[in-house]
């Protein structure tokens, strides 16, 4: 899920995670690596006071300042492209073509997801293809280090503090490996969920009693459908601009070109 959309979930995430206003700003932010270790020590005390313990605190202690994450955060340019440029850059035609085959090969899975959440295959496959090339590349950055760095960084410290608490809770529950690798802003798995959204919308799509956004395409796709339903998706409604479910796509990503790309690719896959 591209970062421009994710700020929309902040208010709900704050309430869900129940981090006190006073403690959430106890550790002092910074704009370079110089203060990261001192911040991390202060944050660890804060986290322990808010119920984080054991393996999660140990994982936090091993995080390092993620220079590549900061670079990526300061250089997000693809959403300034025109729709045609964006579709070409993301390989929209190739995603739609391959997506049709994937839909046929996984017909039972997509039918079960639509029956459960009301979301058809097209937009799910479009998101899956654009986010990670259908799970082909989910990132190469240490997830906890990325999120901790952004929580420390002054630009959006409060927002990513909630993401860091969520990531630590996922580690504590066994849902996220302490050494997990993901995208530059801490996005997780085949459809790139930030930690707060894994907590809120993560779903067990393969019925094994666990949520694995990385290794289970069923979990990743069911979670994505659950996210869209949580953002107003209504079964049977259209999802093109001006139709009932386009607002749910806007919930996925705030960039207009991204929303339109999902709608265009999804319609091609669904045969609409």
UniProtKB/TrEMBL annotation:
Residues 1-26 form the signal peptide. Residues 36-238 form the Transglycosylase SLT domain. It comes from the Bacteria. Keywords: Signal. The keyword Signal applies. GO terms for molecular function: peptidoglycan lytic transglycosylase activity. Pfam families: SLT_2 (PF13406). One of its GO terms (biological process) is peptidoglycan catabolic process. This is Lytic murein transglycosylase. The lineage of its organism: Bacteria, Pseudomonadati, Pseudomonadota, Alphaproteobacteria, Hyphomicrobiales.
């Amino acid at each position: 899920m591209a970062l421009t959309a994710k700020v929309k979930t902040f208010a709900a995430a704050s309430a869900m995670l129940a981090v006190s206003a006073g403690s959430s700003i106890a550790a002092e932010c910074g704009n370079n690596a110089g203060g990261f270790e001192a911040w991390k020590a202060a944050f660890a005390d804060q986290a322990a006071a808010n119920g984080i313990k054991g393996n999660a605190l140990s994982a936090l202690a091993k995080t390092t300042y993620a220079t590549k994450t900061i670079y990526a955060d300061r250089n997000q340019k693809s959403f300034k492209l025109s729709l045609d440029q964006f579709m070409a850059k993301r390989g929209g035609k190739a995603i739609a073509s391959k997506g049709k085959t994937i839909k046929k090969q996984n017909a039972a899975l997509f039918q079960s997801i639509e029956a459960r959440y009301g979301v058809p295959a097209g937009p799910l496959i479009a998101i899956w293809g654009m986010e990670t090339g259908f799970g082909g590349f989910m990132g190469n950055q240490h997830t906890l280090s990325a999120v901790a760095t952004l929580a420390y960084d002054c630009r959006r410290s409060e927002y990513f503090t909630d993401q860091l608490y969520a990531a630590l809770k996922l580690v504590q529950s066994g849902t996220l490996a302490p050494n997990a690798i993901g995208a530059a802003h801490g996005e997780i798995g085949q459809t790139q969920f930030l930690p707060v959204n894994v907590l809120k919308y993560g779903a067990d799509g393969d019925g094994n009693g666990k949520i694995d956004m990385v290794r289970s395409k069923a979990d990743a796709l069911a979670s994505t459908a659950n996210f869209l339903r949580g953002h107003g998706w209504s079964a049977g409604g259209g999802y093109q601009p001006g139709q009932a479910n386009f607002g749910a796509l806007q919930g996925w990503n705030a960039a207009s070109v991204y929303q339109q790309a999902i709608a265009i690719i999804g319609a091609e896959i669904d045969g609409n």
